[in-house]
Amino acid sequence: MDDEGEREYRTAELAKAAGITVRTLRFYRERKLLPPPRREGRIAWYDHHHLARLRTIAALLERGHTLGGIAELVTAFEEGQDVGALLGVTPTEETPVRLSPEELADAFAGEVTPENFAEALKLGYLATDGDEIVHISRRLLDVSVALIREGVPLAAVMEAGSRVRVHAEALASLFLDTMATHAPEADVDRLRPLAKSVVEAELSLAMDRHMAGKLEREVKEEAGGEG
């Protein structure tokens, strides 16, 4: 069985495949960074999930994570929402994205703390599927990464997303109720781009008003200071 996805490893074989010592492997197991192996008498058998976990630990250590932090991430990962529940509520227009833990750490540039990971699982942005992480929406993932690169902390991005969701739920209810009342036979799928256009236009106008108001206040403050 040469396929890495099917192969099982004894302790020494797994350590060699992961590029670590047997002593390190046992240390990780004692720290509960690895799930228990399959036992056959006194022999411990590991599989590709264990190898993937060891590679993830090595990658996260290289990125500056501590073993304590990795242990907390592992706990959050293992207690995370299953991908089946996540994909069951995924909107038709959104494309889920599969990421390895290393790719997630790279995308969010050191912002993947146990607290942030657990909050993302709680909000339903992330779910776990074997050794992979699934993000509910490519668009939301790209926006989150862009905001972090602009200097916005991930915790603040998720807080904003949580607040936006409340308003989005209200807007969706408003549009659907309007359609149900005044055009019950209309195709709801045709409503989606119309609703999005209204929201985008109103948001753009609201941002213009806020920026104009901010500029006006700054001008008044400067004028007052000169007086």
Q: What's this model, at a glance?
A:
This protein has 227 residues and is mainly α. It contains ten helices and five strands, in the order ααββαααβααββααα. Helix 4 runs parallel beside helix 7 and helix 9 packs across helix 10.
Strand order of the largest sheet: 3-5-4
- Mean pLDDT over the full residue set: 85
Number of strands: 5
The oligomeric state is single chain
Supply the number of structural domains: 3
What does the model show?
This protein has three domains: 11-62, Orthogonal Bundle (Multidrug-efflux Transporter Regulator, Chain: A, Domain 2), CATH 1.10.1660.10; 78-159, no CATH class; 187-227. It has a three-stranded antiparallel β-sheet. A two-stranded antiparallel sheet has the order 1-2. It has ten helices and five strands. The chain starts with 10 loop residues before the first helix and ends with a helix. It has 227 residues and is mainly alpha-helical. The mean pLDDT is 85. Helix 4 (67-78) packs parallel to helix 7 (114-123), helix 7 (114-123) packs parallel to helix 9 and helix 9 (154-182) crosses helix 10 (188-226). A hairpin with a 2-residue loop joins strand 1 and strand 2 (43-45). The protein has helices at residues 11-18, 22-30, 48-62, 67-78, 83-88, 101-107, 114-123, 138-149, 154-182, 188-226; strands at residues 38-40, 43-45, 97-99, 126-129, 132-135.
